[in-house]
Amino acid sequence: MGAKTKQGDLLKREKAARNEAEEARSRLSFLSEASRVLGSSLDYETTLRNLAHLIVPELGDFCVVDLAEDGQRIRRVAVADIDPEREELVWRIAREQPLGIHLPPLRSRVLTTGESEWLPEVTDEMCLGLLQVATRTNARR
User: Fold this and answer.
1) Is it the case that residue 103 has pLDDT exceeding 80?
2) How far is CA 15 from CA 20, 28, 141, in A?
3) CA proximity to 82, closest of 64, 65, 63, 61
4) Residue 117: other Cβ atoms inside 10 A
5) CA–CA distances in Å: residue 121 to residues 63, 116, 117, 125, 132
6) How far apart are CA 116 and CA 118, in angstroms?
7) Looking at per-residue confidence, does 19 or 130 come out higher?
8) Counting runs of H as helices and runs of E as strands, what totals does the chain give?
9) Measuring CA to CA, which residue among 29, 39, 124 is closest to residue 85?
10) Are 63 and 78 contacting, i.e. CB atoms less than 8 angstroms apart?
């Protein structure tokens, strides 16, 4: 193996090690900030809102936190989105059409299992679709 080949190999490994170290530093920084947010308030709603805004854009583009109450009602406590207009649209939908236990399959699964759901993409059309489903559901009650 020639000297240039060895040098090129060493540079590639050094670059990979630097990238790995930077990713580890970024993860540690995120975890540190998440710990700070979790311990910053005794009010769980404030904590959930702050956590949602920390998650976006670090882990995703969009985050919604809903709480089930009294087995009949769902209350939205946090929305974070990289698109402020879509964030406001999601809040508006929740204000105009209160969330209930009769929900589309995706949301029902989340409430039934208690496990969060990851969606690879959330579009304005999906948000408006939820409003239409909520409107139809509320009209049947």
Assistant:
1) no
2) 9, 20, 61
3) 61
4) 9
5) 12, 15, 12, 11, 19
6) 7
7) 19
8) 5, 3
9) 124
10) yes
Q: Are strands 99-100 and 73-81 parallel, antiparallel or unpaired?
A: antiparallel
**Stretch 116-131: mean pLDDT, rounded?**
74
Q: Which amino acid is at 1?
A: M
Amino acid making up residue 90: V
The string of DSSP codes covering 26-86 is: HHHHHHHHHHHHHHS-S-HHHHHHHHHHHHHHHT-SEEEEEEEETTTEEEEEEEEESSHHH
Fill in the amino acid letter for 30.
F
Query: What is the rounded distance in angstroms from the CA atom of residue 123 to the CA atom of residue 61?
Result: 11
**129/124 Cα distance (integer angstroms):** 8
**Residue that the structure tokens 């929740």 belong to:** 94
pLDDT for the residue numbered 120: 80
Contacts of 71 (CB under 8 A, 6+ apart): 101
More confident residue, 125 or 131: 125
Specify the pTM. Answer: 0.65
